[in-house]
């Protein structure tokens, strides 16, 4: 019995391999749990009840109201600037009620009143020029041409998005890599155990031949 236990004792390299495998298994499980609770579940809820539609621009306008944004000019240099509010009103193929267009879900959460948030520059005039350029783009280049937009009737029935932040590719990668980490950990543990078992059997067969 003592010889059998000694034979199954893992070497230092095998012990490190087992620890690495269990560490990867734990990391994969915790990543799946964390992503599921903190990111994946809200993202799926955000997508739930939503879909795509064809949108057509009804009106493009700038409001008199200006909003603050934070710019960075170095490691320890930050400040506040302002930009005008641009609104792009569209008609969707799913509803006759005008809806406010947004760049994506992040922009909608940051400023639900506006359709576009420019990259925050230190100069307010530069921010205004960026917004004016975007206004001309929607008026002149897009005009009455239909384009694909996205909506969510449950969360924001009066708003539509030009693109989704949480598309299928992002969701796939968020689920895939923790799963791969978990499977690699399982594979390392299984291979280490199998290698040790084969080594013990080979040693036992070798001893029997010498007897």
From TrEMBL:
Coiled-coil zones: none
Major localisation: membrane
Pfam short name (any one): CaKB
Keyword tags: Glycoprotein, Ion channel, Ion transport, Membrane, Transmembrane, Transmembrane helix, Transport
Recorded GO CC terms: voltage-gated potassium channel complex
Subcellular location: Membrane
Transmembrane portions of the chain: 20-42, 175-199
Domain of life: Eukaryota
Topology of this chain in the membrane: Multi-pass membrane protein
MF annotations from Gene Ontology: calcium-activated potassium channel activity; potassium channel regulator activity
GO BP annotations, alphabetical order: detection of calcium ion
Keyword Nucleus: no
InterPro entries linked to this entry: K_chnl_Ca-activ_BK_bsu
Protein name: KCMB4 protein
The species this protein was found in: Rostratula benghalensis
